[in-house]
Amino acid sequence: MVRTLEDWSDQERQVRYKQSVPFVHVPRELLAQWDQYSRLMKVRQAWFIESLTDGELAAMATFDTEVAAFDFEVHLPDVPEVFDLPQWRQLMDKGRELLSVLKP
Prior knowledge:
Elements lengths: L1 H7 L2 H10 L5 H17 L3 H4 L4 H16 L16 H17 L2
Helix pairs in contact: 1-3, 1-6, 3-5, 5-6
């Protein structure tokens, strides 16, 4: 999860990700990766939940709410054009906030 958030919150990492795997739509891939963690949190998967503090779970829930509010069903540009979307930049900022809780 930390690696996903590190990629999510850093423009240069997203650019390198795209260069490494050019056929992958990076924003959609990051959204899909987050969806896996979101599901683990929502179903309260024991091994996952027990590895996190209450504060970390609360921060995850906050980030998850931000992701859920992001309308990515419409046209979502890939890297680097996605950086022109204020909503994507906001999610990047929110990812940094969560990362600071998970990795102080």
